[in-house]
Amino acid sequence: MKLKNILIVVKDIEKSKQFYHDLFGLDVILDSDGNVILTEGFVLQEEKIWKACLGKEVILQSNSCELYFEEPDIEAFAGKLKQLYPSVQYVTPLTTYTSGKKVIRFYDLDGNLIEVGTPAP
């Protein structure tokens, strides 16, 4: 067995495509009727499709999982995030742990939790 994709639910597919491209450099591989496959095996699906499939409401900011990215120049990333998406909601501001590792946590446009951290020292 092999994990092929990670899917997140979004309200506005166009805004989310732009968000993930702007911040993480993810590009569209396939765009098909409310389902978008981005590079790195990352999939966006419109909320209305997900709700129809499950028959349940989407719970924003459920904090039950997070997307994790690594970025060596996290200060530059934090600056880009603040400049491009000034209204983003932070969970953890840019923090340096005693190990030297730095992280920042925030929600994407749809309440999906994201952590960006420096590679392990």
UniProtKB/TrEMBL annotation:
Residues 2-119 form the VOC domain. PROSITE patterns: VOC. InterPro entries: Glyas_Bleomycin-R_OHBP_Dase, Glyoxalase-like_dom, VOC_core. It holds the Pfam family Glyoxalase_2. Signal peptide: none annotated. Gene3D superfamilies: 2,3-Dihydroxybiphenyl 1,2-Dioxygenase, domain 1. It comes from the Bacteria. This is Glyoxalase family protein. It comes from Marvinbryantia formatexigens DSM 14469. The lineage of its organism: Bacteria, Bacillati, Bacillota, Clostridia, Lachnospirales.
